[in-house]
Automatic annotation (TrEMBL):
The keyword Ribosomal protein does not apply. The keyword Transport applies. Signal peptide: none annotated. Keywords: ATP-binding, Cell membrane, Membrane, Nucleotide-binding, Transport. InterPro entries: AAA+_ATPase, ABC_AA/LPS_Transport, ABC_transporter-like_ATP-bd, P-loop_NTPase. This is ABC transporter ATP-binding protein. Residues 2-234 form the ABC transporter domain.
Amino acid sequence: MLQLDALTVRFGGLTAVDAVTFTAEKDEVLGLVGPNGAGKTTLFNAVSGLVRPTSGRITFESVNLLNIPLHRRARMGIGRTFQIPQPLHELTVRENLVVAQRFGTGRVDEVRIDEVLDFTNLAGRAQRNAATELALTELKALEIAKALCTDPKLLLLDEVLAGLETSGKRRFMKMLQDMHKRFSVGILIIEHDIETITQLCDRVIALDFGRLIALGTPHEVFSDPDVVRSYTGAQA
Ligand SMILES: Nc1ncnc2c1ncn2[C@@H]1O[C@H](COP(=O)(O)OP(=O)(O)OP(=O)(O)O)[C@@H](O)[C@H]1O
C-alpha cells in the first residue's frame, strides 16, 4: 500500500532520513523505532506531506506522492496523529471531529462521527471543550478519533501511547488492535517502548541516524546487534 524507495530528507547539512526503503501493507501493524533524533517523525512528515523529500520516492497505492499536497494525501486515505495532541481550542470534541473530517474527506458524515465517538469512548464527552476539559487519555483518544473520522486506509501514529500509565496504555493498545480489524486500517506506529511494540506489531523498522538498520519481526529486530547497540548507545 505504502512504498518508500530510497527516501532521503536533508535539513541543510543534516541528513534526517537517509535512503530509507520499505513497504507497508494494509493488513499489518508496522512499528517504527529508533533513538531520539533517528528520523522517525521526519519520515512521517514526508509521508503525510509536511516535509518535501530531498530525493527518493513515496508511493501510496501506486500513486507517486511527490507533488500531492497534504490535504489530498489525507483524502487518498493517509491519516496521522501528532506526538503532542493538537485539539482546536474553543471547539467541542464533536466540533473537532467535524473540522478534521471536512479537511480529510471534503464532507461531514454525522453517522461516521457517532460511530467513531462511540468506538473511542468519547461519546459522553462529545460536548466538552476539547482543549480544556479532557484528560490525557481522552486527548489521545481524540487524536485517534480525528484521524478515524477521515476514513483512512493507513494511519501514522506518532507516540500515541507515550505518557499513559500501565492500565491506560493497555486499554489503548486494545483499542488500536480493534481499530485495525474493525476499520480495516493499516497502522504505522512510532513507539519507544519495546514491550508495547512487541505486543502490537507484526513487523518493525529500526532507524538510526536516519538509516534503516533493521526490518523484521519484533523478535528479529530487537535481537539484532545493530539495534541493541543503537539503543544501548542512546541510553548511555
Ligand atoms: N525542521 C527541521 N529543521 C532542521 N532539523 C530538523 C527539523 N526537523 C527535524 N530535524 C532534525 O532531524 C533529525 C531527526 O529528527 P526527528 O524529529 O525526525 O527524529 P525522531 O526520531 O522523531 O526523534 P524523537 O524520538 O525525539 O521524536 C534530528 O536531528 C532533528 O533535530
